[in-house]
Design brief:
The protein is mostly helical. The protein folds into 2 domains: about 50 residues, Arc Repressor Mutant, subunit A (Orthogonal Bundle); about 180 residues, Tetracycline Repressor, domain 2, CATH 1.10.357. The chain is built from 10 helices and no strands. The chain is globular and about 60 Å long. It comes from Cellulomonas xylanilytica. Pfam families: TetR_C_33, TetR_N. One of its GO terms (molecular function) is transcription cis-regulatory region binding. Keywords: DNA-binding, Transcription, Transcription regulation.
Length: about 280
């Protein structure tokens, strides 16, 4: 478990170790104020019954997402699908937004697990591993388009994601930064994009993903890597989005290979040189 608490190592060595842990899926981003205890395993009959109902609620809500989309999600509809009174559902989930939050956390964790598993098990270098990660995330999105749309599509009007969603959301970023740091450590990170002054470009709290609680302690080279990581993230989400939402109709003949070129081209700007078939 990673913690953003200072230790005796230099920021640079700590950063390299943390990002390697992210890539292997061994690290989980936490802050010094977060509780890191593992979820409680149901032990009593009452707890197990509650967990079973929650599982059924989430399954019914996911089915509603697939049929109607996130904007139309309602507790009344989910209760009706389960044959429950709507008042009974409120004993488990206090609001539609709370249910939506549970689904969002579950979905971020799912795609994060996909990325971490590929990064952890790949025998390739950082560049080719990134292509493998991107391909795996694309397969997940094509298989579960409504899950992808829930976290990366049009925001649900009136919904404001709570802080609970942050840690699951940054699992993907952890993989990306870990791969970039691995490439930098191996001496193969060669950005084609312009050099720049990183000052003032990234929100200070975003550097927590790189293991820094105090932005003033972030070295410029680490800051540049963190900022450039957004290129990999946005190219991945963007490439999948245009395919899922029909913008490649009569544009891409072989969509898998078309996707690979998009990912490789963006990665080259950041400094990862991907070899394509």
């Amino acid at each position: 478990m990673l913690s953003l608490v200072s230790d005796a190592r230099t920021p640079w060595s700590r950063k390299q170790e943390q990002c390697s842990q992210f890539r292997r899926g061994e690290g989980t981003l936490t802050t010094v104020t977060e509780q890191t205890a593992a979820p409680r395993v149901p032990t009593t009959a009452r707890d197990r019954a509650r967990a079973e109902v929650m599982s059924e609620l989430l399954a019914a809500a996911r089915a509603r997402l697939e049929s109607e989309g996130s904007a139309a999600l309602s507790l009344r509809a989910v209760a009706r699908d389960l044959g429950m009174a709507s008042s009974a559902v409120y004993r488990y989930v206090p609001s539609r937004d709370a249910l939506l939050t549970l689904l969002i956390i579950e979905t971020y964790d799912a795609v994060g697990e996909v990325a971490e598993t590929v990064a952890r098990t790949s025998d390739a270098g950082p560049a080719q591993t990134w292509l493998e990660v991107a391909r795996a995330v694309r397969r997940w999105a094509l298989d579960q388009p409504y899950s992808f749309e829930l976290i990366y599509g049009t925001p649900v009007r009136g919904y404001r994601a709570p802080d609970d969603t942050v840690r699951p959301a940054v699992r993907m970023w952890g993989v990306i930064i870990g791969l970039l740091m691995d490439a930098d450590r191996d001496g193969v990170l060669d950005p084609a994009g312009p050099d720049f002054d990183p000052a003032g470009r990234m929100a200070p709290e975003a550097f927590a993903t790189a293991g820094y609680t105090d932005p003033a302690t972030v070295p410029d080279d680490v800051a540049r890597i963190a900022i450039r990581s957004a290129t990999l993230f946005t190219s991945l989400v963007g490439a999948i989005s245009v395919e899922l939402f029909g913008h490649l109709h009569r544009v891409a003949e072989d969509r898998s290979r078309f996707f690979d070129v998009t990912i490789a081209t963006a990665a080259a700007g950041v400094g990862l040189r991907i070899t394509l078939d």
